[in-house]
Write a structure and sequence with these properties.
single chain, about 600 residues, eight-stranded mixed β-sheet, three-stranded antiparallel β-sheet, about 20% strand, elongated
């Protein structure tokens, strides 16, 4: 008979039996041993009669976990932890630390903290020093209690590495033949000392305010790759050449396709792109479209049955012109034009009444009154005005309005991309991807990241602030993808058969919007509310007492979690002081840790 080797270690095994509609659970104490080279099991006791919480405690103890009676613990400190761990987990998965610099340093850790903090609770650098201590973020990164000067030094360290950071991002997301999306925005700046601060066209609708202009270069999915800051009075078209240099010289991207809005391109810019071997997709401006229509190059009757066609014109040699007509846009423009014309007539009518009544006399006085209101709604070009000393009349230019209305809903894309590489539909879809850059600007400016107002005075600090915000958006982009199931967005964006018509949300996303619940019954959130929900998962610092005496302290990671996205399983009255897996029970967290970061 072979030698029997018994192990003294026992463990809890739960078995389940189904008898008809009844389910029976048995909890057994078992020991494993070897006999004749085979593993065998021996039942040493049946503990099924014990209460569930005693079985859970016994199972934990046999697994080597230390258990503490809740009655002997007092909480000394409780800090929000769940949202910190979620952000840092994604940053580790994306290798943000290596993206910043290969060598560990205090400055790198501080930049990591500022990126995470801007996602969790955005604010100024002074505000950041105050709220850092209100979560476990400083503990996780080991940065202690940094001052404002420490953060400024970290910003200076960051801006010195901008080119290398952007080059690494480009290696990740821009490859041969990749589509590069580029758009421009502006944000107002406080103070008058920064040399970048100038008055210009404000996209924040803050006319007269000092501002900066910044361009964002993204890949086709909308992930940011590079950001560049310009003076606040910079014209859109003046920023394109530097992006071409980035793509070709710094990033070394061959055969890239540069996609930009119609306001970006000039003849000189397009020649620069072609000389660099970069294909492009953009759109014609309204006067250019009107000129083609006047030349008869646009078969408008064709769009009574179609909404997409490719044409050629002598004015645009070696280019493909893709003509699109969106009937919904046409209807909206017709309605808006009529509203503006009617509103202008409502402004002019009282002046005509005053002139007829003799209370407003003289062509100069009448002209001044008319001039103050006639272009209030930007449709002066559609009116014929007749002004004399005692007479004023106005009429619509019906023929001119009809000519403009015939082009409602029509826009023309122009590109140098070969038809073998991009079909007509691909050209339209690629141009529409610029909406993803616009979405990035909305996120940067909204409560999610709060890039504005900008308080820095030094030019390099302003540039570092924008780079920091871009990196925060890069992490947030991936978090949104990982948490799509719990957000009011599509997990998989549907691709419609018609690239011209408005994109539709999937039925699944519409159901989430209506019910405010996921298919599995979870609450659907916005990004900011989900971050706040995760913050309910806390890390407690506790002291253990025996007989009223203090016997030291311990940290129980997330033991008091009440967040609906992460519940702690523990026996009543017992705290498991070993570190537990974070977010183990919810789809958002499963996706966060299992989804491959882009």
């Amino acid at each position: 008979m072979g030698r029997r080797k018994r192990s003294h270690a026992v463990h809890v095994v739960t078995t389940t039996r189904h008898v008809g509609e009844r389910v029976y659970h048995s909890h057994l104490l078992r020991r494993s041993y070897r006999e004749d080279g085979k593993v065998k099991k021996e039942t040493v006791g049946n503990i099924s009669h014990l209460p569930d919480h005693i079985i859970a405690a016994l199972r934990a103890m046999l697994d080597g976990k230390e258990l503490v009676d809740l009655g002997t613990l007092s909480t000394e400190q409780s800090l929000p932890h769940g949202h910190v761990e979620a952000a840092l987990a994604m940053m580790r998965r994306l290798k943000i630390a290596l993206l910043l610099d290969r060598a560990p340093s205090k400055q790198r850790d501080l930049v990591m903290a500022m990126i995470a903090q801007r996602i969790l609770t955005p604010g100024s650098k002074l505000y950041t020093t105050r709220v850092l201590q209100q979560s476990t973020l400083p503990q996780e990164l080991g940065i202690g209690t940094p001052t404002v000067d420490d953060l400024y030094e970290a910003l200076d360290w960051l801006i010195e590495r901008q080119e290398s950071i952007e080059r690494r991002l480009a290696r990740r997301h821009l490859h041969k033949g990749s589509v590069a999306l580029y758009d421009l925005s502006s944000s107002y700046i406080e103070g008058r000392c920064c040399p970048l601060a100038m008055r210009g066209y404000s996209r924040d609708e803050r006319r007269g305010s000092l501002q900066i202009v910044y361009g964002l270069l993204c890949d086709r999915q909308g992930r940011p790759v590079a950001v560049e800051v310009f003076q606040g009075n910079t014209i859109d078209s003046q920023t394109v050449n530097s992006q071409v240099i980035k793509l070709k010289d710094r990033f070394g991207v061959d055969e890239a396709v540069f996609v930009a809005d119609r306001g970006m391109v000039t003849r000189a810019n397009l020649e620069t792109l072609c000389a660099a071997g970069v294909d492009w997709i953009t759109a014609l401006r309204a006067p250019q479209v009107q000129k083609l229509a006047a030349q008869g190059a646009l078969p408008l009757s064709l769009f009574e049955q179609l909404n997409l066609a490719e044409v050629h014109a002598d004015d645009y040699p070696n280019e493909r012109l893709v003509v699109c007509r969106n009937p919904l846009v046409a209807e909206e423009r017709s309605r808006k034009r009529e509203d503006l014309l009617t509103a202008t007539e409502a402004q002019l009518a009282p002046i005509a009444v005053r002139v007829a009544a003799g209370t407003l006399c003289g062509s100069a006085a009448i002209g001044m009154a008319v001039g103050a209101v006639v272009n209030k709604f930007k449709v002066k070009k559609h009116f014929d005005l007749s002004i004399d000393d005692g007479r004023f009349a106005f009429t619509r230019k019906s023929e001119q309005i009809a000519v403009e209305a015939a082009l409602d809903g029509i826009y023309i894309l122009r590109t140098t991309v070969d038809s073998q590489a991009f079909s007509t539909s691909d050209v339209v879809r690629s141009y529409k991807q610029l909406a993803r850059v616009e979405n990035a600007f909305r996120t940067l400016k909204s409560i999610d990241l709060e890039i504005r107002p900008i308080y820095h005075y030094r030019e390099d600090r302003v540039r570092a602030h924008l780079l920091l915000a871009m990196l925060a958006y890069y992490v947030e982009w991936h978090l949104r993808e990982a948490w799509a199931e719990l957000l009011f967005i599509d997990e998989q964006t549907p691709i419609g058969t018609d690239p011209v018509t408005k994109a539709q949300r999937s039925e699944h996303a519409q159901n989430k919007d209506r019910s405010k619940r996921t298919a599995s019954g979870e609450v659907v959130h916005s990004f900011s509310t989900l971050v706040r929900e995760l913050a309910l998962r806390a890390r407690n610092t506790t002291n253990q007492r025996y007989g009223g005496d203090l016997h030291g302290s311990d940290q129980a990671n997330a033991d008091s979690a009440t967040c609906s996205c992460a519940r702690v399983r523990a026996a009543p009255g017992i705290v498991d002081t070993t570190e537990t897996p974070v977010f183990a029970e919810k789809p958002c967290c499963i996706r966060l840790f299992s989804k491959k970061a882009g």
